[in-house]
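Hi U.,

Before I forget, here's the chain from the pilot set. I'm dumping it here mostly so it's searchable later in email.
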Amino acid sequence: MRRLMAPTAALLLAAGTTYAVRSYLDREPGGTATVVVETAEPAPTKAVLVAARNLSTGDFVQPDGLRWQEWPDVELPESYLERGKAQEADLVGAVVRRGLAAGEPLSVSSVVKPGDRGFLAAVLDPGMRAVSVPVDEASSNAGLIFPGDRVDLIVTQNLDLSAEAGAATRRVSETVLRDLRVIAMGRSLKGEAEGDLVAGTQVRTATLETTPAGAEKIALASELGKLSLSLRSLAVGDGAQPPGTAAPTHTWDLEVSPALRPENQPHATMALVRGGKAETVTVRRGAGS
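Structure:
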């Protein structure tokens, strides 16, 4: 008897449970149960300044070379540049000190900004030298040459040829080096009119990038005579000679001014006495030169 009561009680309990569940569902709209799913809030993040593309050593940082990258909200190295603590514009114009891959965070030590120690050395290409030469408003194209331009270096000098019979002082101008990159004008290393390049401010020096041999030639040329900068076109040249090499060009004063040629000098007369006989002859001034 007891063996029959246990299964019967189990069946009754199951039936009662089923009835209770059906009654509950019937009271819900649509006869379905409402399930509430809790979603976890997204983890907090921060933004870090990274390279938008590959940057090589010596590259100038441009606005399109930087971007902000979402970063986990964890403790960052102090050298990282975090949004809210650093401005993107502060890095524009800086020079990359070491190569950076796209997506790599920028750090204080990976770039050097204008005015910082070592900036000029970072701007130079490997193996090149920086040499400053004296210039004035006329020899620097009235202040219209800026860092980043390319120029030819010209020296104008006076040659004393008095040791030669009938010779005199001659003037000659020649191109010492060609296609040199301008690193700085005065103390300004930026390619825009600011700093020493403000209108009305006279620039007294130009810093040029050249080879070690070219640096020796520039140092000597500055002692020979007056230096001038000849601005080159932005268009690509013929490539006949590599940048920083000497160009076989020179111009003598007689080529510029035909009036200096002996045949074009004014004439004078003089009395020539030979054996008691007087004779008037015509003499060209500058004859023999």
